[in-house]
Structures are given as structure tokens and as C-alpha cells.
Amino acid sequence: MISSFRTRQFWLPRPLFSLFLALLWLAMVNDVSVAHALLGLGLGVAIPFTTHAFWPEEAKIKRPLPLLRYLLVLLVDILRSNLVVALRILRPARYLQPGFFVYPLTLDDDFAITILASTISLTPGTVSLHYDAEANTLLVHALHLEDEEEAIATIRERYEQPLEEIFR
Amino acid sequence: MIAVVIPIAMTLFAVAALLNLYRLAIGPDIVDRILALDTLMINSIALIVLADIWMGLGILFELALLIALMGFVSTVAMSKYLLRGDVIE
Amino acid sequence: MTSIDMPWYLQFIIVAFLLFGALVALIGSWGLAKLPDFYTRLHGPTKASTLGVGCTLIGSLLYFSLQQEGISVQEALVTIFLFATAPVSAHMMGKAALRRRLKGVPGTRNMPER
Question: What's the domain range around C33?
Fold first, then answer.
């Protein structure tokens, strides 16, 4: 996308990302002073300006509130999943019933799919292995797969539908 | 209380690192070895942070951040190499 | 070890984080060493080790925030970085394993053909 010199798109392609970079800089030096704030803001403007030609399309976060709820659910699930996986690891391996299943996606935004795949990898007993762009499916490996349909339904209800709500 | 617990936690992480080395040594396939190295990196981050508390320095987290970066990038680069036969496409 | 004067309950919270983190990370590495095939081994490090190290880092964050004046947020940065990258590296390693046609443990359901 080529835009003219005078627009905001040219000088400041992503204001939120610039602000995020400035805050990241402050956190990294762990020192909130005017000098570091200015340096961070300078970096926050310079980095998107020089690199935004390489970036994919921007994902639109429509509703921030469900995003917060999603992060909370994710935090609880990470804790829960670790206890579940820890128990499975400590039990003898012959009780394990590992298996693959194909998860049909309904999301179509790349960024949302990335988040969903990461979520699947961080939550109870599942790791996403392969994304098939043509069929729009994810290949998922489960440490203990009892009921395929149930696993798919859980992911859809718990993670995919909130993500749809956030990004559309 | 913290002075007692830190050596215990470091011992646990050291045992974890030894287990990773075991997998690194026997791992039947090269992907297992990559996974073992990745886990070793993650465990060493924890060891560095604990040593940081133990010595009361408060400056080693930069090292931890660097090792986290190196571990991630090298894991992805090695997996990419196995996938395509080239690191840079 | 510098001398510290902290109320016992704060010390207790930090100790709980450190010990819980170390135990969980140990279980993750134990899983890496003992589980039967690559795809099951992938689960230990991506979940357990990441959470274990995350808990250790949060303990360290609390310690340095309480000991010195002001908050120390760098450990939080490392934690967020680990949680953001662990699924990506797991995904890449899983893809590489599928590409090399690694065998799953006998009894794996729906083993992909590719």
C-alpha cells in the first residue's frame, strides 16, 4: 500500500503498535524518565516506519472487553492444563491413549488462526501441529484422546467462538 | 526461608537439565534432540534467574532474555531446516 | 545472599512460586525423558516447562520488587516472551516431525498418512 507523504498512514502506520513499542522499551530499561520515554517513542515511530512494508494486513480487534475475558480464561486453562498434563506424565505410559484429530476451522483471519493455534498448544493436552491453508483445518495431537467429537466441540465453544466475537 | 528454598529449587532444575541431557544423548531422531535442546534452554533460564536471586545481583535477567531469544530462534531455524532443507528460503 | 527483612507471608508466597515452578518444570523434563514417542514428548516441554519457568520468573519478580524500591518488570517480559514463543516452536518441531514421518507409539489413533 503506497500512501502519500502527508497522511498518517505514511508516517505512523500503526499508532497502537508504536505506543506498545514505547512501553516495551520503558519496561526493558526498567526506568521511567523523560529521556527514556522520548527514546522509546522515537523507536516506536522509527521501527514501524522502516519495517511496515514487510507486514501482513493488520488484524482488527473489534472488541477489547471479550479479549480481556479470553485472556483470563486462557490463564486459568494454562494452569489447569499443566496439572492435567503433569498427572498424565506421572502415570505409567500404558494408560495413555494419544491420538491425532483434524480440527475444522471456521475463522478465516490469519492473526486469529495464529492465536487459536497457540491457544490449542498451551491448553489441556493438545498441541497443534499443522495448518492446512486449503482445507482450512488444523491437525492437532492430543496426549489423551477419548472422544474426538467432544474435543473438537470443547475447542470450538471455549476458544474459537470468543475469538470470532473479538475479531469480527 | 528463601535462602533455604533457592538451593532446593536449583537442584530440581539441575535434575531437570540432566533429564534433558539424557534425552539429548539417546533421542532416536534429530527432532527429539532439538526438543531436548529447547527444553534445556528453558530450564537454564530458570537456573540463571535463581542464581540471580541467590547472589542478590538483580542484573542477570538480560542474560535470561537473551537466552530465551537464542533458544527460540535456533529451535525455529533448525526445524525450518528439517522442513525445507534450507534455513533461508 | 544478601540479608533480607521481609514479612514471613511475603517470603512464603515467593517460596511457593519458586518451589511450584521447579516441581512443574521437573515433571515436564521427566515427561520428555520417559514418554514413548516424539508427539507425546512434545507435550511436556511446551506446557509444563513453560509454566514452571514462568512461575520461577514471577517469584523472582516479586522478590526483586519487594527487596528494592519500585517494581522490576523485566522478568515479566521474559515470562510473556516464553509464553508467546513456546507454542510457535512446538508447532515448528511438530511440523518437522511430521515431515520426517516419525512413527507414533503403537495405538495412536488417526495417525496421519503423510
Answer: 8-99
